[in-house]
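User: Fold this, then the next.

Assistant: Folding the first:
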Amino acid sequence: MADNILSHFGSFYFIGIGGVSMSALARFAVLSKKKVGGSDRDITSAAALKSYGIKIFPCGTRALEGYEVVVYTDAIPDCDPELRLARSLNKVVIPRVKFLAAVCKCFSRVTAVSGCHGKTTCTSMLASIYYAAGKRFSAHIGGNSLQFSNFCSFGNDYFITEACEYKKNFLSLRPDCAVVLNTDADHLECYGSESELYACYRKFAARADCAVVPYGGLSSDVPGAVSFGGDSRADFCCREFPCGRGLYSFELSAFAKSLGTINLNVPGRHNVSNALAAAAAASTEGIEFLYIKRGLEEFEGVERRMQLLGNLGGVRCVADYAHHPAEISAAIRTAEKITDGKLYVVFQPHTYSRTKNLFKQFVSALSDVRRLLIYRTYAAREYFDEEGCAFTLSRAIKKSRYGECPEDILKFISAAVDGDTVLFLGAGDIYFIARGLVNSAAENN
């Protein structure tokens, strides 16, 4: 039933509609001329959806009674009152990924981007390439692209989407082109082991008509896969050139033939890898280098990816979504290149389980930071676990401080001066806390 859900039903209710993925899917439902409503604990996060004709309700109402299908996110527990009500009323109840799978069936070609990190950036880069090429496409983005927000619709020939590995969600999708950016360990509370996680990435890649994967490992384990990487033996490879202030250019080669040079306008060496994957995926879908180059060079970036928030007492404030040790290391390296003075880092762990499962890696990624504050954990869907809490992580890193409230952040950066940079890291509410501090400082000046 879920595969044909968009043709079978005319009304959809989203529990957790303010989420970045859910709000994008709700907008697609509206474009499909469906009656759409939803609820969220944070009404303000969903308020913008009203302009699309979507009705927003507070949690705990019986508003879903007026809708045929109820869609919920993984963040919603089974004990949620609205979810229990929907089931008691025998509504059609499906998880977010099943709705996404149904959306995919509305398009001629689907490209799905997976990986522990880089998904939102690569998906946004692909959207920029397809836009430059004048393709009829739509994109479902797991963050806010500065060009396209979290959703855009220019036609139904191609669909570009993120494929989240949490709870093996990406295995519900059957894309024509499957992109795997990396297979770093994460969500081990769902998989149990790194080998099981890797096996699922391999399964995801193998089920697509075309797979774009990192050179080595998966490129050997997935027959017919197109590989990308810095190694000259990769199908799509590059020679990179630092341009200063954290920016890079690179010469792109495909199957041992040089195609030309691409000049990125977003900082970070890791973005060369994201761009290389996007170029490989676009090329396999028949897009010419001219448009790949134009799309990548016109790519403006993504909210919360090395985003300049403003100044706090003359000190530059930058926010990044990094919440995995590998992402943290990359973000810190980039921040060091773009700051003229000292670097202050405020990191908020995202979930107790991730911190606990990757504890040694977090310590390793953060131990060399000279000015570090570990902010209270953003629990998301989880309950307190002392072994994976921010205070425990802070105690394991000798030079770090622990912060419980915004005032602790202000005390931490009180010694910063003009030319210094504060880097706010994390996937939780640290971004909004940082924005609040910056906006408050601006209002008081």
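Now the next one, as you asked:
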Amino acid sequence: MKVEVSERLASRYLCLADFEGDARRRLPWSIFGFIEGGSEDGQSLRANRAAFEAVEFVPRALVNTSGRTPEAQTLGRRWDAPFGVSPMGAIGVAAFEADIALARAAASRNVPFILSSSSLVPMERVIEANPHTWFQAYLSRDRKDDLPYLDRIAGNGFETLVITVDVPVGGNREENVRRGYSSPLRPNARMVIDSLCHPRWLAGTFGRSVLSRGMPHFENMPAERFPMFSLSARRTQGRDNLDWSDLSRLRDAWKKRLVVKGLLAPQDAERAARCGLDGIIVSNHGGRQLDGATAPLTALPDMVRAAGAMPVLLDGGIRRGTDVLKALALGASHVFLGRPMLYATVAGGASGAARAMDILKTEIVRDMALLGVRHLGELDASIVRTRARNLTAP
């Protein structure tokens, strides 16, 4: 499955940040704010980037890197690059069938894509577009819903299940309230005016979605379909009754690869390893849950030590190829990023997403030469140093 990138896209977008400006102009104010924002004062959101900026490289000179490769072996599969696309909910409200566009781009570039259970596209259609898609879900507050849900996921051919555990309750996203964004979206005069001021989004995303599939719904929840637009419906996100026994129960029920996303404490990495998980994703939910939570990169070295032989992946703050290499040097097996890939999809659909992936891979290959690294296995703590005392690599 090939996704072509036009010469126009290749010349217009030179780095991941270039997509964000276009997305900001194309999207209604409330929807862009939903994607861009974090929780409360945005401390965790800013910390994710600051952690990368605090790490410096110590490159090696006069190394023959002419045969270098960015290929990565992660969770039983060889990938063409050590990054993938994070799960993002409700992204179909930003770009037409964004999940399918991202899935197609990821398949074309042979990098992992994680489909969110809060997608507006049925999982059946997404895995058809990319048979190697991973599926992200939450443990259900009502435990009786889990087994039928797992049957649906497994029955559709998903080999890797990612369970997000850092949302016992929804984060305090005050900026969403200020901008009039809610889930489900409640139409109001301000939203209508804002939409009319963005005709490309109104016709190309909302209008196209309604004409092709009807009003958007959350299609992949454990229970019934849930409307994306409603004046009265309410989603219940509370999962504060769950504990590690629920994860152990899930491990027994799910016979394929199981990964947990949203861990930051070394004690939790140790428990995940004892539960027999296939991997963990160190993440603070992109700064969208607990404000003031440590940055994933800051937590990473201690998590790697605690995890033992279990693969440790990282999500949050990746914007450059140098960021990817810093995370790998500090012990990550693979990294994931969300917002930049969605902005690229808003700007150019599957081709835009593929262009973003090409940019990041090209940066990684170039930076490997500048670091004196021939393959990713050569990345270790000796090529980085940091101004932050708590970033001592294993």
